[in-house]
Amino acid sequence: MAVAFDEMNGPQGELRPAYEELSRWLKETPPDALEHRRQEAELLFRRIGITFAVYGDSESTERLIPFDVIPRIISGKEWTLLEKGLKQRTRAINMFLKDIYHGREILRAGLIPDDLIFQNPVFRPEMNGQDVPHDVYVHIAGIDIVRTNPDEFFVLEDNARTPSGVSYMLENREIMMRLFPDLFARHRVAPVEKYPDELLSCLRSVAPRSASTEPTVALMTPGVYNSAYYEHSFLADKLGVELVEGRDLVVKNDEVFMRTTEGLKRVDVIYRRVDDDFLDPLTFRPDSALGVPGLMSAYMAGNVTLANAVGTGIADDKAIYSYMPEVVKFYLGEEPILKNVPTWRCREPGDLAYVLDHLSELVVKEVHGSGGYGMLIGPAATKATIEAFRDKLKREPEGFIAQPTLALSTCPTCTESGLAPRHVDLRPFVLTGSKNVSIVAGGLTRVALKEGSLVVNSSQGGGTKDTWILDE
């Protein structure tokens, strides 16, 4: 694997301009003072109660996501490029989803195999021909970005269903401003605090036409046992909207109402953090106790907006991801600004043969996997693990894609033995409303805290950093 690009000390070890002020500050700050503030940050996170649940973890049901106090810094020029690429990609994803559930021009053009859509477990035939308010399917997208050199960012994956992590972006910034005012004073950092206002504005803008002039928005959670429940309650509070569970909602005459102490109140927009399968027991899983009977009837009648729309999982699919460059060109007539990571589709015999011959060098992912699970990182795997994966691939080649083991960029990170480079990725959050696409300057930087590890997911021991976009 190639040597990783260090975002602070560039390819030749020269200090990069965006990090000059941080470098000076670090030289002036004694290591014990930095360690003291790191401990303070951990204490604050514990007090606030920022945790995530780990399913199947016998040690504990909830954990604190480790937070690193050294910010990741991105120049304004770099961010401008990223922003353009993210907006382009999100527009294409929304056009793709509308097409897949309507005219299917991209299938007629032969750019994507039909079976990848129609045999996909997250394709929702219920959405065929169904219009959604303002043609927006993905209102909130979390697009994971990786970097391999000073000039290139790649999209690692698209999260188009219920992307999580924005609460950590906001809390990370609040903690940093509280603990490091002196460091902030030396930089012009673009704010992220306006995200809740922008999200609320975005959600209200996509309310159905039958909504009142002040649409009512609610955030729907599966409940306290969900791994992201902290984020659900945090966001509802920041947005100033009700946090509801399925049992708090009722459908009457194809309209959705929430139960309140003053009686039933109509809900126009539901920011749902509940998967499709569990939304409505009358349409999807009949055993779901998390959903609202009749919700899909109200949705199809055009009386409620669901954000994100039902059926967006097709754009999350890692096999569909491999076609995204073609998707962008097909709908927008433009070359993609942000490239994909080179990807082998194991469903194609030639690609499968290559992958089987190079398993020890590649990262192999389940097409429907997430959270860093069900993945083979060839260079770090044992021979036995590789052989077990080889058998899986031969049995179900269509269930996997493979990618080169990228040398993800690194950022300086606090470790037990002092500052050291650790691999990072970035999840910016893209909001699509009825009239425009917007992105708060920043995102969630996830960091692989184990030396040499490329897995940044919190469920796999990763941590987070504050992301500073410099106003230039």
Largest sheet data = 5 strands, mixed
What is the percentage of strand-forming residues? 15-25%
- Helix share bin: 25-40%
Number of domains: 3
Low-confidence stretches: 54-60
What's the Cα radius of gyration? 22 Å
Structural class computed from helices and strand pairing? alpha+beta
Backbone shape? globular
Mean pLDDT: 91
How many beta-strand runs? 23
Strand order in the sheet with the most strands: 3-23-22-19-18
Q: Helix count, per DSSP?
A: 14
Alpha-carbon distance between the termini?
Answer: 34 Å
Protein name: Circularly permuted ATP-grasp type 2 domain-containing protein
InterPro entries: ATP-dep_Glu-Cys_Ligase-2, CP_ATPgrasp_2, UCP005522
Domain Circularly permuted ATP-grasp type: 71-448
Pfam families: CP_ATPgrasp_2
Mind explaining what this structure looks like?
With 472 residues, the chain is of the alpha+beta class. It folds into three domains: 294 residues, no CATH class; 95 residues, 3-Layer(aba) Sandwich (Rossmann fold); 61 residues, Dna Ligase, domain 1 (2-Layer Sandwich), CATH 3.30.1490. Helix content is 30%, strand content 24%. It has 14 helices and 23 strands. The radius of gyration is 22 Å and the shape is globular. It starts with 19 loop residues before the first helix and ends with a strand. InterPro entries: ATP-dep_Glu-Cys_Ligase-2 (IPR051680), CP_ATPgrasp_2 (IPR025841), UCP005522 (IPR016450). It comes from Tardiphaga robiniae. It holds the Pfam family CP_ATPgrasp_2.
